[in-house]
Specification:
This protein has about 260 residues and is an alpha/beta fold. The chain has seven helices and seven strands. It has one domain (about 5-185, about 220-245): Rossmann fold.
């Protein structure tokens, strides 16, 4: 098993990609600290996984003190921490005209400041343990430029790329690795519901044009989780500072097919 006897903190893990990462980590032998805002969701996941290998903490990572508490409670519950997955994020939709200072600060606070603060707390724990550690940041292909209505979100994910590389360079001599995965379009429960609310059919995610899903289907949360456990594990060592797009196509220089011309 890739993560046998490891302790992993996964932020934003009561649903979607984060939940898939928590579940896959346990399958690979880890004990996990589940994090989210909904206690009922977190409790359900931990009961399903088994309370001997999973526990949860409810915290708003917009609060800097809560970021440190996540790591402290992980170490208190399981005795140490070996890996961190910065997955929690908010996707506040806004463009230049609708992104005021409050919206921008909120999105940056959750999507960039919080991962930095949680990483700092985790690194302090890694240093006390003297065993090194692995951090995996969950970004987005929107870091490249982003959709017009994802200005603040895209800016935060772009900042995360630079932070990942900076930390990898700074922490490598301490055997602390930092890598980043940028998922493309993934049909999480929240994403499916959002698109339905915007007018798409209930089965929209099963009938995407090949342009969006060349394989004939969307990338699933469990498949992103497979990437993550590899980067958490020693199987990916000593690589650090790696940032890549987990999508079905290269987003670099891609042009939309010109149909019906």
């Amino acid at each position: 098993m890739l993560l046998e006897n490891k302790v992993i903190l996964v932020t934003g893990s009561t649903t979607g990609i984060g939940e898939a990462i928590a579940r896959r980590s346990v399958q690979e032998g880890a004990r996990v600290m589940v994090h989210g805002l909904e206690e009922d969701w977190a409790r359900r996941i931990c009961e399903d996984l088994g309370q001997d290998v999973a526990d949860f903490v409810i915290a708003d990572i917009g609060d800097p003190a809560a970021c440190e508490r996540l790591v402290d409670e992980t170490v208190t519950r399981f005795g140490h921490i070996d890996g961190l997955v910065n997955n929690a994020a908010t996707m506040r939709r806004s463009n230049l005209d609708t992104t005021d200072a409050d919206v921008f600060d909120f999105v940056i606070g959750i999507n960039l400041r919080a991962p930095m603060l949680i990483s700092r707390a985790a690194v302090h724990a890694f240093r006390r343990q003297g065993t090194g550690g692995s951090i995996v940041n969950i970004g987005s292909i929107n870091w490249l430029s982003g959709e017009p209505n994802l200005l603040a979100y895209s800016a935060a994910k772009g900042g995360m790329v630079t932070m990942t590389r900076n930390l990898a360079n700074a922490l490598g001599p301490e055997n602390i690795r930092v890598n980043q995965i940028n998922p493309g379009w993934v049909p999480t429960t929240n994403e499916i519901a959002l698109k339905i609310s915007e007018g798409l059919s209930p089965d929209w995610h099963e009938n995407l044009p090949r342009h969006y899903a060349p394989s004939g289907r969307m990338t699933q949360p469990a498949e992103i989780a497979s990437h993550v456990v590899f980067w958490l594990s020693s199987q990916s060592a000593p690589a650090s500072g790696i940032v890549y797009e987990a999508e079905q196509y290269s987003p670099y220089g891609r042009n939309t097919p010109k149909a019906n011309l």
